């Protein structure tokens, strides 16, 4: 084997070993520990508000253009909830003050208080979608027992929606099957199959085919972002926490 071939083979093996998708264990602790700096940024910065509104304005422009001339209730948009439609940073702030991180018990107690506020730009976008005849499906990994409190919180923030699909108990977090339920029409009693014109989320896993490996993929692999896929800023937590350090 030539020196060049040997070097290329060694590089390939090194790349496989460092892939966060195949890592034996996450590089961050499983129990989420919040960062004071990122929570402060998300809760107080003008940049956060500007980025959120920028994403939603672009999404509105693209969706309304794509929906022009379509029959009402024949198309849909799919959105995540946490840090996409509802800002849950108060939970992170309170957990830090209590000296703890994320856990399911305290999270459920927080959701039942129904105190989360609308993300900047979310209400205007959702109202525009409904005004154009679109269906709004919210697909979240909040678990089923807190789904009704989630709906009530959304209603209190005047955030329109047609269906909220929570994560069933003991079900995996993969949203793909629920995306398919929206597209096939199974998620609602009517109006039947829907064409999904846009996905909005704060985590790469909120999008079909999304994975952290996209950070190293060719630019063409991200062609749908800014056209059908729209990302909200979230430096506080996410699937990126498991990425290997660089």
Account of the protein in words:
α2 (36-44) packs across α3 (46-67). Helix content is 39%, strand content 13%. The chain has 246 residues and is α/β, with parallel strands linked by helices. Mean pLDDT is 89; it is low at 1-30. α7 (147-156) links the parallel β4 and β5 (163-167). It has helices at 3-18, 36-44, 46-67, 89-97, 104-113, 122-131, 147-156, 176-184, and strands at 75-79, 86-87, 117-118, 135-143, 163-167, 195-201, 229-231. The chain has a 5-stranded parallel β-sheet with strand order 5-4-1-6-7, sandwiched between helices. A two-stranded antiparallel sheet has the order 2-3. The two termini are 31 Å apart. It has a single domain, classed as HAD superfamily/HAD-like (Rossmann fold), CATH 3.40.50. It is built from 8 helices and 7 strands, in the order αααββααβαβαβαββ.
At a glance:
This protein has 246 residues and is an alpha/beta fold. It is 39% helix and 13% strand. It has a 5-stranded parallel beta sheet, with helices on both faces. A two-stranded antiparallel sheet has the order 2-3.
């Amino acid at each position: 084997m030539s020196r060049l071939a040997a070097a290329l083979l060694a590089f390939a093996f090194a790349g496989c070993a460092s892939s966060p998708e195949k890592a034996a264990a996450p590089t961050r602790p499983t129990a989420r520990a919040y960062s004071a700096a990122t929570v402060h940024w998300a809760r107080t910065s003008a940049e956060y508000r500007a980025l959120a509104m920028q994403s939603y304005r672009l999404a509105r422009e693209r969706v309304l253009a794509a929906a022009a001339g379509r029959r009402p209730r024949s198309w849909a948009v799919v959105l995540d909830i946490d840090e996409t439609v509802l800002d849950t940073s108060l939970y992170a702030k309170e957990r830090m003050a209590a000296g703890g991180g994320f856990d399911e018990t305290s999270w459920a107690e927080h959701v039942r208080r129904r105190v989360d506020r609308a993300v900047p730009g979310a209400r205007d976008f959702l109202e525009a979608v409904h005004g154009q005849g679109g269906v709004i499906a919210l697909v979240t990994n909040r678990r089923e027992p807190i789904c009704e409190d989630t709906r009530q919180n959304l209603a209190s923030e005047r955030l329109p929606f047609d269906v909220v699909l929570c994560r069933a108990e003991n079900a995996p977090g993969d949203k793909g099957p629920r995306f398919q339920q929206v597209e096939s029409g199974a998620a609602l009693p009517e109006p039947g199959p829907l064409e999904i014109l846009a996905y909005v989320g704060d985590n790469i896993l909120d999008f079909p085919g999304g994975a952290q490996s996209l950070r190293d993929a060719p630019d063409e692999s991200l062609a749908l972002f800014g056209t059908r896929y729209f990302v909200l800023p979230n430096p506080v937590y996410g699937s990126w926490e498991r990425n290997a350090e660089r």
